[in-house]
Amino acid sequence: NAGVTQTPKFQVLKTGQSMTLQCAQDMNHNSMYWYRQDPGMGLRLIYYSASEGTTDKGEVPNGYNVSRLNKREFSLRLESAAPSQTSVYFCASSVGGAGETQYFGPGTRLLVL
Amino acid sequence: KNQVEQSPQSLIILEGKNCTLQCNYTVSPFSNLRWYKQDTGRGPVSLTIMTFSENTKSNGRYTATLDADTKQSSLHITASQLSDSASYICVVSANSNYQLIWGAGTKLIIKP
Questions:
Q1: How would you classify the pairing of strands B100-102 and B86-94?
Q2: Which residue, among B44, B112, B49, has the nearest Cα to B80 in the 3D structure?
Q3: B41 to chain A: which residues are within 8 Å by CB?
Q4: Secondary structure of chain A as H, E, C letters
Q5: What residues in A contact B100, CB-CB < 8 Å?
Q6: pLDDT values of chain B reduced to their tens digit, one per residue, 112 residues
């Protein structure tokens, strides 16, 4: 039982490049989330998926797209990376809504030059 | 505006000592409040959850309190250990939407 896994662990991009961050959970959770964490700030929700087949914008969705591929997998895509997207990205999942315990992956550290 | 503020920003204490971390929130309507522990380089892990009717909840050496009237919560750590070094994040859930309001965290360093 791996919980929530994320790939890659670390990535360096040049401005304008694209990439996809992968996330998978093996806990049969319905809801999945993508957050970014910047120094001195709380986690900010980028997108979430309340259930398979649905996605919704969070607090900071601009510059990102998501896909809920199936119940297990939720990917985050940066179409044209910008230095402002340098951050640590966390994927999380929960059985039901946001008020329930969220289980986090180890994070992806992204540096955009 | 829904906000969660934590204090202090950082704290250094000696191993074996106790400490208390504070969380003030302005979130309405209130659903629940959680404390998460985040080790360096890892994702957050839930420590406790407090609902509106709960005043105190313990999880081993961690005790969380909630005063829903003053909209304040605290996390007390007893007999600190080196492994308690981490960031502690207060998170409030509002009934009205799907999102959580995350505090910026308190970075706790335990020195031997």
A1: antiparallel
A2: B112
A3: 106-107
A4: CCCEEEECCEEEECCCCCEEEEEEECCCCCEEEEEEECCCCCCEEEEEECCCCCCEECCCCCCEEEEECCCCEEEEEECCCCHHHCEEEEEEEECCCCCCCCEECCCEEEEEC
A5: 45, 98-99, 102
A6: 889 999 999 999 999 999 999 999 998 888 899 999 999 999 999 999 998 888 999 999 999 999 999 999 999 999 999 999 999 999 998 875 567 899 999 999 999 9
